[in-house]
Amino acid sequence: MIKENQKNKFPELVEAIKDGMENLKASNITILDLTELENSVCDYFIICDANSNTQVRAISNSVEDNVRKTLNEKPWHVEGLDNSQWILMDYVHVAAHVFQAETRDFYDLEGLWGDAKVTVLENNF
């Protein structure tokens, strides 16, 4: 859940992705704002983790469904559906990353993009 003083801080696409993740109880949702970084690959990363391959796939489906229903947009590209350890959903300016927890720890995107503004969302799951 985004705190009240953080509402409308993020673009609609970021909100729609976040809501899709929360709908299926994604854990440790983190938003990296890359807009002020030189040479960033996009404007935002939204990262979450899940407990199983099944939940990783279900969360990515929820994100895609919610973004389509809310904004009538589809991802430009999706990777990782075969093994569901890490699914990347590329919406051009925003990238959604759905990880299994140990895979997220291994790749440490938050560490790689350590200069980004970080927002960790509270969830009650």
From TrEMBL:
<dbReference type="InterPro" id="IPR004394">
    <property type="entry name" value="Iojap/RsfS/C7orf30"/>
</dbReference>
<comment type="subunit">
    <text>Interacts with ribosomal protein uL14 (rplN).</text>
</comment>
<keyword id="KW-0963">Cytoplasm</keyword>
<dbReference type="GO" id="GO:0005737">
    <property type="term" value="C:cytoplasm"/>
</dbReference>
<dbReference type="GO" id="GO:0042256">
    <property type="term" value="P:cytosolic ribosome assembly"/>
</dbReference>
<comment type="similarity">
    <text>Belongs to the Iojap/RsfS family.</text>
</comment>
<dbReference type="InterPro" id="IPR043519">
    <property type="entry name" value="NT_sf"/>
</dbReference>
<comment type="function">
    <text>Functions as a ribosomal silencing factor. Interacts with ribosomal protein uL14 (rplN), blocking formation of intersubunit bridge B8. Prevents association of the 30S and 50S ribosomal subunits and the formation of functional ribosomes, thus repressing translation.</text>
</comment>
<protein>
    <recommendedName>
        <fullName>Ribosomal silencing factor RsfS</fullName>
    </recommendedName>
</protein>
<dbReference type="GO" id="GO:0043023">
    <property type="term" value="F:ribosomal large subunit binding"/>
</dbReference>
<dbReference type="Pfam" id="PF02410">
    <property type="entry name" value="RsfS"/>
</dbReference>
<dbReference type="GO" id="GO:0090071">
    <property type="term" value="P:negative regulation of ribosome biogenesis"/>
</dbReference>
<dbReference type="GO" id="GO:0017148">
    <property type="term" value="P:negative regulation of translation"/>
</dbReference>
<keyword id="KW-0810">Translation regulation</keyword>
<keyword id="KW-0678">Repressor</keyword>
